[in-house]
Write a structure and sequence with these properties.
Nitrilase/N-carbamoyl-D-aminoacid amidohydrolase
């Protein structure tokens, strides 16, 4: 594929209404299936069901219900993420769903947020998958994991063209978040797409008002989808990545040279072990 059509759902979350949020999101997803035939990836925001802890089996059932509305399309769905109960632990976890996958692929928030108190009840995540859809490699940096350049660099070194960032970010932090998106896109020469909720708030009253975005690998373009709830489509020219890498060989540089903690930069050994 030389292009990829992305749909971002900017969701008007009702803070504590699991049933209404599920029905509303299913309606948005059904609209995508009704009004397009060529959407490749659908990205949902983090926490769109609300902040409640949900058993993993219940969450998987909700996502099966939502994904069923998309099945007329050969489309991949990135579920956002929720606080889910797995055995005796809580993770911030999402699922990747596709008709071509034997089962959903889980992904986690690797570094729960200290700032909003997640570390008092959310375990550090373990799942950072890379997966393919229609031949295009994709990865996910969940919410605050975008702050960690090592996370996105790991995905880029594993071959992704698009890093998806489901998030739930207040208005006061969106300028910072968009700056992070541009930096991660440029330093790794990949696309970065962020989905946010809108018309909602944190429990402490801070407003969440959308401004989901896509940052381009050349640093020349950031598409901001504003504050209104809705579905936003964008077709990405994946050939831009190779054109940018002819000028910015950052990934090749870090594949071949390594920095040590004593401040030295040496060439990596490329010899394969037997």
């Amino acid at each position: 594929m030389t292009t990829l059509k992305l749909a971002i759902i900017q969701f008007p979350r009702r803070l504590d209404d699991l049933k209404s949020n599920t029905e509303l999101m299913a309606g948005y997803v059904a609209r995508i299936a009704a009004e397009t035939t060529d959407t490749d990836v659908v990205l949902l925001p983090e926490g769109w069901l609300g902040p409640k802890l949900i058993p993993l089996a219940q969450y998987a059932g909700i996502m099966d219900q939502v994904f069923s509305r998309l099945k007329p399309l050969d489309c991949l769905l990135v579920s956002g993420a929720q606080y889910v109960i797995v055995d005796d632990q809580v993770f911030c976890r999402g699922l990747v769903l596709s008709q071509h996958l034997p089962k959903p692929i889980p992904f986690d928030k690797l570094f729960p947020s200290q700032a909003v108190g997640e570390r008092s009840f959310v375990a550090p995540g373990t799942e950072l998958p890379v997966f393919k859809h229609k031949g295009v490699s994709l990865g996910i940096a969940l919410c605050v994991d975008l702050f960690y350049p090592e996370v996105v660099r790991n995905l880029a070194l594993r071959g992704v063209s698009l890093v998806l960032n489901p998030a739930n970010i207040p208005c006061s932090r969106m300028a910072l978040w968009q700056g992070l998106g541009v930096a991660r896109a440029c330093e790794n020469t990949v696309f970065v797409a962020m989905a946010n909720n809108t018309e909602t708030s944190y429990a402490d009253g801070r407003k969440i008002m959308g401004e989901s975005f896509v940052a381009y690998p050349d640093g020349q373009k950031l598409v901001n989808f504003g504050r209104e709830a809705g579905i936003f489509y964008l077709t990405l020219d994946l050939q831009l990545i190779n054109r940018v890498r002819e000028r910015w060989p950052y990934l090749e540089d870090v594949r071949t040279r390594t920095l040590t903690l004593d401040g030295r930069c040496a060439f990596r050994s490329l010899a394969k072990s037997n």
